[in-house]
Amino acid sequence: MKHQFAFFTSALFMLSGKPSFAQTVQTARVTAAEIYMNDVAQVYREATLNLKKGIRTVVIAGIEGQLIDQNSVAVEIYPKGQVIRIFPPAEVECKDDDICREFQRQLERLQSEIQQDRLELEKLTTAEKILIQNANVTNSQNLNLNLLRESINYFRTETAMLTDAKHKRKTQIDEKQQKIQELQAKIQSRNRYLQTHVRNYSALVEVPQDGQYQIGISHLIRGINWRLQQEIDIDETEKHAIVRNLAEVRLTTEERWEDAELTLINKSFDLSGKPIEFRPLRAVFFRPRPVMTIDVAPVRTQRMAETAQKILANEDAEAEQFDISSMIEETIDGETFRLSGKYRLSKDTPLTKELYRDTLPVQLKYQIFPYVETKAQLLAICHTKVHVLRLNPSVIRLNGRAVGIESNPLFLSDDSVQIRLGTVNYITAIRKRQNLYSSRSFLGSSKKDTYEYSIQVTNRRNSDVTVTVIDRIPVSTDSRIEVKFKKTGQVEPDKQGMLRWEITLQPGLSRTLEYGFEIIYPKDKVIELIEDGNENAKTSVPR
User: Which residues does UniProt assign to the signal peptide (predicted)?
Assistant: First the structure.
């Protein structure tokens, strides 16, 4: 049994001229697509058609999307059919396009309705003229006053009705003419789209007997893309984060896909100009896809490879029914994702599909910087499987509620990650400077400025919270300036001058933290302490 498939790669097949012999026009629906990250997809289409024995031309109508090049097109007919020749693509006319034909039908219907409306308008105008003539005749006769009054009222009523009917009919004609103009614009736009984006593909095929056949066509297109997104759902009670990795697939052409199998490939398609490698179409279209239950992976791979070689050699491989596509490695680290099921896709209905998820243990942590803001920041700390997190997730949720996404919501290190969940209102800190007017003194040839602060931290939540309070003192880089920390017995500054308190607060309670420092410097110098709203407090000495 021989099965052949043809590509646009051979000069033998690239023959000029129009298709000959009897033609069968068929629309091929998209059954599968392999979508790459650089907005390129290899699309597989198939159609079922009845053919008479012998040689004839089959036209695959209305393939949308800009092809990368003609070398990407392949055609196969099954069962026992043979593709003799593939013709160059032909432009699609309006009469061959379903959408354009529908616009044309609507246009013709409206034009017919306008003709009928104009005939009705002429009838109304004629009736109005006759009514006026009858009114003139009636007025010229010697009628008594009551009959004359009734006749005048009748003519007035009928005239008003005719005038109103004429006005409505004219309005209907104007509205339909407006719709005609809109349809004509749509037809022109559709024609331009057909000329630039849509092509008919023809193949000369031979079949051994009358019957039903399947024809498949594969090609590369632009106009479809997918992006990998990540959502992080944090459950405070369970103390874990569910990391969902989602694929968003968008089709930007005017085509609509129904029941298509999608494979997402997390790399760019190689357009370097070297020969394009494709799987046999028969492996995609025409064979059943049984579920493999062989446990030994090397044996399975070897048998599948042997089957693939038979198909490539056009040998009968009916005894070995393997799905060649399953040879692609499926790993959760992003090489290939084969979506289960079949999907509907169009320009107006993008697809969002969850690929896989991870569950990570997290520890929620509150921290507050009183010298910068009054509200506490909430962080989720994770120490395991840090590599599965992306720097820019699309959504972060806490207890099912989305939190504001900042420009860099994740801070990754080698062994942990901090997820910023924004600020909370129920933990606050008020920082105040004490003894402001008695803070300067003189020591011989030096001056001493004393700074003392109090920080009141309040928990307005209905449960205990542990919060890290972070403040700082200036660090001198000048040998003439000395900074002395006034010990509180609670904390000590680090080399950068940072102070950290770890405190636990019960519901509704507050705690006051105090600290201070002294700056000693020469009398002839002026020290400026920059601190309000600045995360990097420092001292400067004018020269």
Answer: 1-22
